[in-house]
Amino acid sequence: MPQRVRRCRQVEGKRRGAAVNRRDLLKVGGMAFAHASFAMQSRAQNSARTGMQMGPAPEGHADYTLRIAPVTVELDPSHILSTIGYNGSAPGPVLRMKAGKPVRIDVINDTDTPELVHWHGMLIPPEVDGTEEEGSPLVEPHSRRRFQLTPGPAGSRWYHSHAMAMDDLHKGAYTGQFGFVYVDGGNDPGAYDQELFLAVRDWEPYFTANMDDDDDDTHNGPLLEKPAVMNAEPDGLEVGSMTYSINDKALGSGDPIRVREGQRLLIHFLNASAIENRRIALAGHKMKVIAMDGNPVPSPQMVDSIFLGAGERIDAIVEMNRPGIWILGSTEKPIRDSGLGVIVEYAGQHMQPQWVDPPKEPWDYTIFGNAASNSPAPQQTSAQEQMIEAIFEKIPGGAGKFNVWLINGKPYPHEREFVLEQGMRYRLVMRNRTDDAHPMHLHRHLWELTEINGKTTAGIIKDTVVVPYYGRAVVDFTANQPGLALFHCHIQQHMDYGFKALFRYA
Fold it and tell me: Does residue 199 share a domain with residue 181?
Protein backbone atom coordinates (compact mmCIF):
# COMPACT_ATOMS: atom_id res chain seq x y z
CA MET A 1 0.00 0.00 0.00
CA PRO A 2 1.60 3.33 -0.98
CA GLN A 3 2.24 5.59 1.96
CA ARG A 4 1.43 9.27 2.19
CA VAL A 5 3.24 11.47 4.66
CA ARG A 6 0.52 13.56 6.21
CA ARG A 7 1.94 16.26 8.38
CA CYS A 8 5.66 16.65 7.64
CA ARG A 9 5.64 17.87 4.07
CA GLN A 10 8.70 19.87 3.02
CA VAL A 11 6.90 22.06 0.52
CA GLU A 12 3.26 22.03 1.54
CA GLY A 13 2.02 23.93 4.55
CA LYS A 14 -0.31 26.79 4.98
CA ARG A 15 -0.53 30.52 4.46
CA ARG A 16 -0.50 32.26 7.76
CA GLY A 17 -3.58 34.26 8.75
CA ALA A 18 -3.01 37.92 7.99
CA ALA A 19 -4.09 38.97 11.48
CA VAL A 20 -1.55 36.72 13.26
CA ASN A 21 1.86 37.82 14.54
CA ARG A 22 3.94 34.63 14.56
CA ARG A 23 6.14 35.91 17.41
CA ASP A 24 3.06 36.24 19.60
CA LEU A 25 2.13 32.62 18.99
CA LEU A 26 5.38 31.44 20.57
CA LYS A 27 4.00 32.58 23.90
CA VAL A 28 2.18 29.34 24.67
CA GLY A 29 2.14 30.16 28.34
CA GLY A 30 0.09 33.26 27.61
CA MET A 31 -2.43 31.23 25.61
CA ALA A 32 -2.77 28.73 28.47
CA PHE A 33 -3.17 31.56 30.99
CA ALA A 34 -5.94 33.14 28.91
CA HIS A 35 -7.67 29.75 28.73
CA ALA A 36 -7.45 29.26 32.50
CA SER A 37 -8.57 32.79 33.38
CA PHE A 38 -11.63 32.63 31.14
CA ALA A 39 -12.52 29.15 32.41
CA MET A 40 -12.35 30.21 36.06
CA GLN A 41 -14.61 33.19 35.36
CA SER A 42 -17.10 30.95 33.49
CA ARG A 43 -17.17 28.38 36.32
CA ALA A 44 -17.87 31.09 38.87
CA GLN A 45 -20.72 32.46 36.74
CA ASN A 46 -22.22 28.99 36.24
CA SER A 47 -22.01 28.21 39.97
CA ALA A 48 -23.77 31.44 40.85
CA ARG A 49 -26.48 30.78 38.25
CA THR A 50 -27.16 27.14 39.11
CA GLY A 51 -26.39 26.99 42.80
CA MET A 52 -24.12 23.99 42.16
CA GLN A 53 -22.20 23.08 45.29
CA MET A 54 -18.41 23.22 44.90
CA GLY A 55 -17.81 20.96 47.92
CA PRO A 56 -18.28 17.22 48.58
CA ALA A 57 -21.04 15.21 46.91
CA PRO A 58 -24.41 15.47 48.66
CA GLU A 59 -25.89 12.68 50.73
CA GLY A 60 -28.08 10.04 49.12
CA HIS A 61 -27.95 7.44 46.42
CA ALA A 62 -26.14 8.03 43.12
CA ASP A 63 -27.41 6.27 40.00
CA TYR A 64 -23.88 5.90 38.64
CA THR A 65 -20.42 6.26 40.14
CA LEU A 66 -17.26 6.88 38.12
CA ARG A 67 -13.95 6.51 39.94
CA ILE A 68 -10.96 8.06 38.16
CA ALA A 69 -7.82 6.18 39.18
CA PRO A 70 -4.70 4.43 37.84
CA VAL A 71 -5.44 1.18 35.99
CA THR A 72 -3.48 -1.42 34.07
CA VAL A 73 -4.56 -2.54 30.60
CA GLU A 74 -3.41 -5.96 29.40
CA LEU A 75 -3.40 -5.58 25.63
CA ASP A 76 -1.86 -9.04 25.43
CA PRO A 77 0.01 -11.19 27.98
CA SER A 78 3.36 -9.63 27.00
CA HIS A 79 2.15 -6.02 26.80
CA ILE A 80 0.60 -4.52 29.92
CA LEU A 81 0.43 -0.76 30.18
CA SER A 82 -0.42 1.68 32.96
CA THR A 83 -2.84 4.55 32.46
CA ILE A 84 -5.77 6.34 34.09
CA GLY A 85 -9.24 4.86 33.69
CA TYR A 86 -12.74 4.60 35.13
CA ASN A 87 -13.84 2.03 37.71
CA GLY A 88 -10.67 -0.03 37.38
CA SER A 89 -10.72 -0.47 33.60
CA ALA A 90 -10.19 1.21 30.26
CA PRO A 91 -12.59 1.58 28.61
CA GLY A 92 -14.90 2.30 31.51
CA PRO A 93 -18.25 0.54 31.98
CA VAL A 94 -21.02 0.87 29.41
CA LEU A 95 -23.58 3.17 31.05
CA ARG A 96 -27.17 2.56 29.98
CA MET A 97 -29.59 5.39 30.69
CA LYS A 98 -33.18 6.23 29.77
CA ALA A 99 -33.83 9.31 27.67
CA GLY A 100 -35.50 12.04 29.71
CA LYS A 101 -35.02 10.32 33.09
CA PRO A 102 -32.75 12.46 35.33
CA VAL A 103 -29.70 10.72 36.78
CA ARG A 104 -27.24 11.49 39.54
CA ILE A 105 -23.60 10.69 38.82
CA ASP A 106 -20.85 10.73 41.44
CA VAL A 107 -17.37 11.33 40.03
CA ILE A 108 -14.53 10.41 42.39
CA ASN A 109 -11.05 11.61 41.44
CA ASP A 110 -8.35 9.43 43.00
CA THR A 111 -5.55 11.05 40.99
CA ASP A 112 -3.23 13.99 41.69
CA THR A 113 -4.57 16.24 38.91
CA PRO A 114 -7.94 17.99 38.37
CA GLU A 115 -10.29 16.17 36.01
CA LEU A 116 -13.40 16.71 33.89
CA VAL A 117 -15.88 14.15 32.52
CA HIS A 118 -17.52 15.24 29.26
CA TRP A 119 -20.82 13.67 28.13
CA HIS A 120 -20.26 13.72 24.38
CA GLY A 121 -23.40 14.14 22.26
CA MET A 122 -25.72 15.00 25.16
CA LEU A 123 -28.03 18.03 25.10
CA ILE A 124 -27.31 19.17 28.65
CA PRO A 125 -26.43 22.48 30.38
CA PRO A 126 -22.82 23.71 30.24
CA GLU A 127 -22.28 23.35 33.99
CA VAL A 128 -22.59 19.55 33.69
CA ASP A 129 -21.17 19.15 30.17
CA GLY A 130 -17.69 18.59 31.58
CA THR A 131 -15.53 21.22 29.88
CA GLU A 132 -13.44 23.86 31.59
CA GLU A 133 -14.02 26.32 28.75
CA GLU A 134 -17.79 26.24 29.32
CA GLY A 135 -17.34 26.73 33.06
CA SER A 136 -18.04 23.17 34.23
CA PRO A 137 -16.57 22.63 37.70
CA LEU A 138 -13.39 20.61 37.98
CA VAL A 139 -13.27 17.44 40.01
CA GLU A 140 -10.30 18.32 42.16
CA PRO A 141 -7.60 15.76 43.09
CA HIS A 142 -8.69 13.27 45.75
CA SER A 143 -12.22 14.64 45.89
CA ARG A 144 -15.69 13.73 44.67
CA ARG A 145 -18.45 15.69 43.01
CA ARG A 146 -22.05 14.88 42.13
CA PHE A 147 -23.55 15.87 38.78
CA GLN A 148 -27.23 15.72 37.91
CA LEU A 149 -28.27 15.61 34.27
CA THR A 150 -31.11 14.46 32.06
CA PRO A 151 -29.81 12.06 29.38
CA GLY A 152 -30.73 12.65 25.78
CA PRO A 153 -31.23 12.37 22.96
CA ALA A 154 -31.58 8.60 22.60
CA GLY A 155 -28.76 6.69 20.97
CA SER A 156 -25.05 5.97 21.23
CA ARG A 157 -23.18 8.65 23.23
CA TRP A 158 -19.94 8.45 25.15
CA TYR A 159 -18.04 9.94 28.05
CA HIS A 160 -14.39 10.92 28.28
CA SER A 161 -11.90 13.23 29.94
CA HIS A 162 -11.89 16.78 28.60
CA ALA A 163 -8.77 17.91 30.47
CA MET A 164 -6.13 19.79 28.51
CA ALA A 165 -2.90 17.84 27.96
CA MET A 166 -0.63 20.24 26.02
CA ASP A 167 2.79 18.48 25.95
CA ASP A 168 1.93 15.92 28.65
CA LEU A 169 0.97 12.68 26.92
CA HIS A 170 -0.20 11.14 30.20
CA LYS A 171 -3.22 13.44 30.54
CA GLY A 172 -6.59 14.08 28.93
CA ALA A 173 -7.79 11.92 26.08
CA TYR A 174 -4.37 10.22 25.81
CA THR A 175 -5.29 8.24 28.93
CA GLY A 176 -7.83 5.42 29.25
CA GLN A 177 -10.60 7.75 30.44
CA PHE A 178 -13.38 6.88 27.98
CA GLY A 179 -16.49 4.75 27.81
CA PHE A 180 -19.84 4.27 26.07
CA VAL A 181 -23.16 5.74 27.14
CA TYR A 182 -26.23 4.24 25.53
CA VAL A 183 -29.38 6.30 25.98
CA ASP A 184 -32.48 4.16 25.55
CA GLY A 185 -35.37 5.93 23.82
CA GLY A 186 -37.84 3.12 24.47
CA ASN A 187 -38.35 2.19 20.81
CA ASP A 188 -35.61 -0.39 20.16
CA PRO A 189 -37.24 -3.10 17.96
CA GLY A 190 -34.63 -5.63 19.12
CA ALA A 191 -34.09 -6.98 15.60
CA TYR A 192 -30.67 -8.42 16.42
CA ASP A 193 -29.19 -11.39 18.29
CA GLN A 194 -26.07 -9.80 19.78
CA GLU A 195 -25.27 -6.20 20.72
CA LEU A 196 -21.60 -5.19 20.83
CA PHE A 197 -19.87 -1.99 21.94
CA LEU A 198 -16.49 -1.69 20.19
CA ALA A 199 -14.15 1.24 20.78
CA VAL A 200 -11.21 1.81 18.44
CA ARG A 201 -8.24 2.98 20.48
CA ASP A 202 -4.56 3.93 20.25
CA TRP A 203 -2.12 3.78 23.18
CA GLU A 204 1.39 4.85 24.20
CA PRO A 205 1.45 8.15 22.27
CA TYR A 206 4.72 9.80 21.32
CA PHE A 207 5.85 12.97 19.58
CA THR A 208 6.99 12.58 15.99
CA ALA A 209 8.03 14.65 13.01
CA ASN A 210 7.10 11.88 10.56
CA MET A 211 3.58 10.57 10.47
CA ASP A 212 2.21 8.21 7.83
CA ASP A 213 -1.51 8.48 7.23
CA ASP A 214 -2.94 5.88 4.88
CA ASP A 215 -6.39 5.83 6.46
CA ASP A 216 -7.32 9.38 5.49
CA ASP A 217 -8.95 8.95 2.08
CA THR A 218 -10.09 12.58 1.98
CA HIS A 219 -6.81 13.36 0.15
CA ASN A 220 -8.56 12.32 -3.06
CA GLY A 221 -11.30 14.94 -2.77
CA PRO A 222 -11.68 18.08 -4.88
CA LEU A 223 -9.46 20.20 -2.53
CA LEU A 224 -11.87 23.13 -2.69
CA GLU A 225 -10.06 25.10 0.02
CA LYS A 226 -6.43 24.47 -0.91
CA PRO A 227 -4.55 27.80 -0.77
CA ALA A 228 -3.03 29.10 -3.99
CA VAL A 229 0.26 29.87 -2.20
CA MET A 230 1.65 27.33 0.25
CA ASN A 231 3.80 27.89 3.32
CA ALA A 232 6.98 25.82 3.03
CA GLU A 233 7.98 26.06 6.70
CA PRO A 234 8.46 22.66 8.38
CA ASP A 235 5.69 21.40 10.61
CA GLY A 236 6.03 21.11 14.35
CA LEU A 237 5.85 17.82 16.18
CA GLU A 238 2.57 15.95 16.24
CA VAL A 239 1.42 12.92 18.22
CA GLY A 240 1.63 9.39 16.86
CA SER A 241 1.14 5.84 18.09
CA MET A 242 1.92 2.30 17.02
CA THR A 243 0.00 0.48 19.75
CA TYR A 244 -3.70 -0.19 19.16
CA SER A 245 -6.67 -2.17 20.37
CA ILE A 246 -10.40 -2.62 20.11
CA ASN A 247 -11.65 -1.98 23.64
CA ASP A 248 -8.83 -3.24 25.87
CA LYS A 249 -7.38 -6.07 23.79
CA ALA A 250 -4.99 -6.18 20.85
CA LEU A 251 -5.79 -8.38 17.87
CA GLY A 252 -5.33 -12.05 18.76
CA SER A 253 -5.57 -11.51 22.51
CA GLY A 254 -8.59 -12.04 24.69
CA ASP A 255 -11.78 -13.81 23.70
CA PRO A 256 -13.01 -13.66 20.10
CA ILE A 257 -16.47 -12.43 19.19
CA ARG A 258 -18.35 -15.72 18.98
CA VAL A 259 -21.27 -15.96 16.53
CA ARG A 260 -23.50 -18.49 14.83
CA GLU A 261 -24.51 -18.57 11.19
CA GLY A 262 -27.75 -16.68 10.64
CA GLN A 263 -27.31 -14.31 13.56
CA ARG A 264 -27.65 -10.53 13.24
CA LEU A 265 -25.15 -8.38 15.14
CA LEU A 266 -25.80 -4.80 16.20
CA ILE A 267 -22.38 -3.18 16.57
CA HIS A 268 -21.93 0.22 18.17
CA PHE A 269 -18.57 1.51 16.89
CA LEU A 270 -16.69 4.39 18.51
CA ASN A 271 -13.42 6.02 17.54
CA ALA A 272 -12.08 6.86 21.00
CA SER A 273 -8.70 7.93 19.63
CA ALA A 274 -7.11 11.19 20.70
CA ILE A 275 -4.92 11.13 17.60
CA GLU A 276 -6.37 9.74 14.38
CA ASN A 277 -9.34 9.01 12.13
CA ARG A 278 -9.71 5.33 11.25
CA ARG A 279 -11.28 3.02 8.64
CA ILE A 280 -12.65 -0.32 9.88
CA ALA A 281 -13.94 -3.44 8.09
CA LEU A 282 -15.17 -6.94 8.96
CA ALA A 283 -13.47 -9.21 6.46
CA GLY A 284 -15.85 -11.18 4.27
CA HIS A 285 -18.93 -9.22 5.38
CA LYS A 286 -20.84 -6.06 4.61
CA MET A 287 -22.19 -3.74 7.29
CA LYS A 288 -25.49 -1.90 7.16
CA VAL A 289 -25.05 1.57 8.65
CA ILE A 290 -28.25 2.51 10.50
CA ALA A 291 -27.13 5.40 12.72
CA MET A 292 -24.36 8.00 12.96
CA ASP A 293 -23.37 9.61 16.26
CA GLY A 294 -26.34 7.81 17.77
CA ASN A 295 -28.92 9.32 15.40
CA PRO A 296 -30.76 7.14 12.83
CA VAL A 297 -29.77 7.94 9.25
CA PRO A 298 -32.50 8.62 6.65
CA SER A 299 -31.08 6.08 4.18
CA PRO A 300 -29.38 3.05 5.76
CA GLN A 301 -26.78 1.63 3.38
CA MET A 302 -24.67 -1.50 3.02
CA VAL A 303 -20.94 -0.73 3.03
CA ASP A 304 -17.73 -2.76 2.92
CA SER A 305 -15.98 -0.55 5.50
CA ILE A 306 -16.71 2.42 7.73
CA PHE A 307 -14.70 5.59 8.31
CA LEU A 308 -14.70 7.07 11.81
CA GLY A 309 -13.30 10.44 12.72
CA ALA A 310 -12.03 10.83 16.27
CA GLY A 311 -15.14 11.12 18.47
CA GLU A 312 -17.58 9.74 15.85
CA ARG A 313 -19.86 6.75 16.39
CA ILE A 314 -21.53 4.46 13.86
CA ASP A 315 -24.18 1.81 14.54
CA ALA A 316 -24.24 -1.04 12.04
CA ILE A 317 -26.15 -4.29 11.52
CA VAL A 318 -24.12 -7.25 10.25
CA GLU A 319 -25.70 -10.43 8.90
CA MET A 320 -23.51 -13.38 9.87
CA ASN A 321 -23.81 -15.38 6.67
CA ARG A 322 -20.23 -16.44 5.85
CA PRO A 323 -19.04 -19.17 8.23
CA GLY A 324 -15.37 -19.04 9.05
CA ILE A 325 -12.98 -17.18 11.31
CA TRP A 326 -12.53 -13.58 10.30
CA ILE A 327 -10.80 -10.39 11.42
CA LEU A 328 -12.66 -7.19 12.21
CA GLY A 329 -10.16 -4.36 12.26
CA SER A 330 -8.25 -1.57 10.58
CA THR A 331 -7.99 -1.65 6.81
CA GLU A 332 -4.33 -0.57 7.16
CA LYS A 333 -2.14 -3.64 7.58
CA PRO A 334 0.52 -2.00 9.80
CA ILE A 335 -2.17 -0.67 12.13
CA ARG A 336 -4.00 -4.01 12.18
CA ASP A 337 -0.76 -5.89 12.82
CA SER A 338 -0.08 -3.49 15.69
CA GLY A 339 -3.27 -4.54 17.44
CA LEU A 340 -6.27 -2.75 15.96
CA GLY A 341 -8.57 -5.69 15.43
CA VAL A 342 -10.57 -8.52 16.96
CA ILE A 343 -11.28 -12.08 15.80
CA VAL A 344 -14.85 -13.02 14.85
CA GLU A 345 -15.37 -16.77 15.18
CA TYR A 346 -18.32 -18.76 13.84
CA ALA A 347 -19.38 -21.77 15.90
CA GLY A 348 -17.82 -25.04 14.73
CA GLN A 349 -15.11 -23.42 12.62
CA HIS A 350 -11.43 -24.35 12.97
CA MET A 351 -8.99 -22.40 10.81
CA GLN A 352 -6.65 -19.43 10.86
CA PRO A 353 -8.31 -16.00 11.05
CA GLN A 354 -8.82 -14.57 7.57
CA TRP A 355 -8.47 -11.00 6.30
CA VAL A 356 -9.68 -9.79 2.90
CA ASP A 357 -9.04 -6.19 1.85
CA PRO A 358 -12.34 -4.39 1.19
CA PRO A 359 -12.81 -2.34 -1.99
CA LYS A 360 -11.09 1.04 -1.77
CA GLU A 361 -14.05 3.34 -2.04
CA PRO A 362 -14.04 6.91 -0.69
CA TRP A 363 -16.16 7.48 2.39
CA ASP A 364 -19.27 9.46 1.47
CA TYR A 365 -21.57 10.78 4.20
CA THR A 366 -24.16 11.83 1.65
CA ILE A 367 -25.24 8.30 0.64
CA PHE A 368 -26.89 7.98 4.07
CA GLY A 369 -28.96 11.17 3.67
CA ASN A 370 -31.90 12.40 1.67
CA ALA A 371 -31.80 14.37 -1.56
CA ALA A 372 -31.19 18.04 -0.77
CA SER A 373 -33.13 19.59 -3.67
CA ASN A 374 -35.46 21.51 -1.36
CA SER A 375 -32.78 22.98 0.89
CA PRO A 376 -31.02 26.32 0.25
CA ALA A 377 -27.74 26.25 -1.67
CA PRO A 378 -24.82 25.68 0.75
CA GLN A 379 -23.50 29.23 0.37
CA GLN A 380 -26.92 30.87 0.77
CA THR A 381 -29.22 31.34 3.73
CA SER A 382 -32.91 32.04 4.11
CA ALA A 383 -34.46 34.96 6.00
CA GLN A 384 -34.80 32.67 9.05
CA GLU A 385 -31.21 31.51 8.88
CA GLN A 386 -27.86 33.19 9.43
CA MET A 387 -24.48 32.06 8.14
CA ILE A 388 -21.34 31.58 10.23
CA GLU A 389 -18.03 31.04 8.48
CA ALA A 390 -15.14 29.23 10.17
CA ILE A 391 -11.81 29.12 8.33
CA PHE A 392 -9.24 26.62 9.63
CA GLU A 393 -5.53 27.33 9.23
CA LYS A 394 -2.24 26.20 10.72
CA ILE A 395 0.97 27.98 11.73
CA PRO A 396 3.70 25.33 11.31
CA GLY A 397 5.84 25.38 14.45
CA GLY A 398 3.89 28.36 15.76
CA ALA A 399 4.24 27.14 19.36
CA GLY A 400 7.93 26.32 19.24
CA LYS A 401 8.03 22.53 18.93
CA PHE A 402 4.35 22.36 18.02
CA ASN A 403 1.92 23.78 15.48
CA VAL A 404 -0.69 26.38 16.31
CA TRP A 405 -4.20 26.01 14.89
CA LEU A 406 -6.39 28.94 13.92
CA ILE A 407 -10.07 29.60 13.44
CA ASN A 408 -10.70 32.78 11.43
CA GLY A 409 -7.11 33.91 11.78
CA LYS A 410 -6.40 33.30 15.45
CA PRO A 411 -6.23 30.59 18.11
CA TYR A 412 -8.45 30.25 21.18
CA PRO A 413 -9.76 32.29 22.93
CA HIS A 414 -12.17 34.06 20.58
CA GLU A 415 -13.88 36.70 22.67
CA ARG A 416 -17.33 37.47 21.22
CA GLU A 417 -16.92 36.36 17.63
CA PHE A 418 -19.51 33.58 17.66
CA VAL A 419 -22.64 34.99 19.30
CA LEU A 420 -25.93 33.15 18.76
CA GLU A 421 -29.48 34.38 19.03
CA GLN A 422 -31.71 31.87 20.79
CA GLY A 423 -34.12 30.13 18.42
CA MET A 424 -32.27 31.22 15.28
CA ARG A 425 -31.26 28.67 12.65
CA TYR A 426 -27.59 28.87 11.63
CA ARG A 427 -25.60 27.57 8.68
CA LEU A 428 -22.00 26.88 9.71
CA VAL A 429 -19.57 26.78 6.76
CA MET A 430 -16.28 25.11 7.75
CA ARG A 431 -13.39 25.79 5.36
CA ASN A 432 -10.36 23.60 6.00
CA ARG A 433 -7.21 25.22 4.63
CA THR A 434 -4.89 22.69 6.26
CA ASP A 435 -3.34 19.38 5.24
CA ASP A 436 -5.34 17.35 7.78
CA ALA A 437 -8.88 16.02 7.91
CA HIS A 438 -10.38 17.47 11.09
CA PRO A 439 -13.17 15.81 13.13
CA MET A 440 -15.08 18.91 14.30
CA HIS A 441 -17.42 18.73 17.30
CA LEU A 442 -19.94 21.24 18.64
CA HIS A 443 -20.89 20.62 22.26
CA ARG A 444 -24.50 20.54 23.51
CA HIS A 445 -26.02 20.83 20.02
CA LEU A 446 -26.83 18.55 17.11
CA TRP A 447 -26.31 19.67 13.55
CA GLU A 448 -27.58 18.55 10.15
CA LEU A 449 -25.01 17.92 7.45
CA THR A 450 -26.00 19.83 4.31
CA GLU A 451 -22.85 19.70 2.20
CA ILE A 452 -19.50 17.94 2.06
CA ASN A 453 -17.01 19.18 -0.54
CA GLY A 454 -19.74 20.54 -2.79
CA LYS A 455 -21.99 17.47 -2.57
CA THR A 456 -25.32 18.26 -0.91
CA THR A 457 -27.44 16.11 1.37
CA ALA A 458 -30.13 16.41 4.06
CA GLY A 459 -31.39 14.60 7.14
CA ILE A 460 -28.04 13.38 8.53
CA ILE A 461 -27.98 14.50 12.18
CA LYS A 462 -24.60 14.42 13.90
CA ASP A 463 -22.48 16.05 16.58
CA THR A 464 -19.09 15.43 14.95
CA VAL A 465 -18.17 15.80 11.26
CA VAL A 466 -14.84 15.18 9.55
CA VAL A 467 -13.98 18.23 7.44
CA PRO A 468 -11.88 16.86 4.57
CA TYR A 469 -8.26 17.64 3.79
CA TYR A 470 -8.27 21.06 2.08
CA GLY A 471 -12.03 20.67 1.92
CA ARG A 472 -15.34 22.09 3.08
CA ALA A 473 -18.25 20.92 5.21
CA VAL A 474 -21.50 22.76 5.82
CA VAL A 475 -23.91 22.04 8.68
CA ASP A 476 -27.16 23.60 9.91
CA PHE A 477 -28.14 23.84 13.57
CA THR A 478 -30.68 25.61 15.75
CA ALA A 479 -29.49 27.73 18.67
CA ASN A 480 -31.69 26.04 21.28
CA GLN A 481 -29.20 25.25 24.07
CA PRO A 482 -28.45 28.53 25.91
CA GLY A 483 -25.06 28.97 27.49
CA LEU A 484 -21.50 28.49 26.36
CA ALA A 485 -20.86 25.75 23.79
CA LEU A 486 -17.37 24.61 22.83
CA PHE A 487 -16.53 24.09 19.14
CA HIS A 488 -13.28 22.24 18.48
CA CYS A 489 -11.25 19.67 16.60
CA HIS A 490 -11.48 16.33 18.41
CA ILE A 491 -7.77 15.58 17.96
CA GLN A 492 -6.40 16.39 21.41
CA GLN A 493 -3.21 18.15 20.35
CA HIS A 494 -5.00 20.33 17.81
CA MET A 495 -7.57 21.38 20.40
CA ASP A 496 -4.91 22.10 23.03
CA TYR A 497 -2.90 24.30 20.67
CA GLY A 498 -5.63 26.71 19.64
CA PHE A 499 -8.14 24.74 17.54
CA LYS A 500 -11.27 25.64 19.49
CA ALA A 501 -13.74 28.48 19.97
CA LEU A 502 -16.68 29.24 22.24
CA PHE A 503 -20.15 29.79 20.83
CA ARG A 504 -22.21 31.89 23.23
CA TYR A 505 -25.76 33.24 23.32
CA ALA A 506 -26.63 36.92 23.15
Answer: no
